[in-house]
């Protein structure tokens, strides 16, 4: 069972905490992690790209000149792809990029990502994270105390003071235990969890 230090908002160690191996100490499955990241990025795509083929562009109904005798290459339409204003060859059309992944695979991928953060010492546990008011400078001071810049901050509840204070800091994003995902866990240099958030994650995924 992994044992990690618990820090306060001043960056001082105030204790230790055991992490559940069923969530933070599993065997890392790189293949599932890769699939989860590809799936998330694919599902984020709008798939609304569109260009017109030669059958969709305007004009070009009449053969521009007779087949033989003009000295020009034979042409059947002024809207063929080689003409200015012509259609696009193999034009992209709207499509759905959604990928599916089994629930057990998604959970295993998230556990692998969290485990990798623990093994790399890139997971920090705070005893609590509370701000008296919405103030970006106060949140930045907490990050400075922890010597962290680019971070995923996981809160147990939607504390508006913390969320609003953090959203204007580049490279910092907040999340709830039920909204964390593999891509964000791996994207940010450090994952910061409150003790309450750790308990919630272990309750859901253990």
Automatic annotation (TrEMBL):
Signal sequence region: none
Keyword Transmembrane helix set for record: no
Keywords for this protein: Ribonucleoprotein, Ribosomal protein, RNA-binding, rRNA-binding
GO CC terms, sorted: ribonucleoprotein complex; ribosome
Source taxon at top rank: Bacteria
Disordered, as annotated region: 44-89
One Pfam family cited in the UniProt record for this chain: Ribosomal_L4
GO molecular function annotation: rRNA binding; structural constituent of ribosome
A GO BP annotation: translation
UniProt keyword Ribonucleoprotein, yes or no: yes
SUPFAM superfamilies: Ribosomal protein L4
Biased composition (Basic residues): 60-71
Assembly information from the UniProt record: Part of the 50S ribosomal subunit.
Function, as annotated: One of the primary rRNA binding proteins, this protein initially binds near the 5'-end of the 23S rRNA. It is important during the early stages of 50S assembly. It makes multiple contacts with different domains of the 23S rRNA in the assembled 50S subunit and ribosome.
Family the UniProt entry places it in: Belongs to the universal ribosomal protein uL4 family.
UniProt-recorded name of the protein: Large ribosomal subunit protein uL4
Organism the protein comes from: Lactonifactor longoviformis DSM 17459
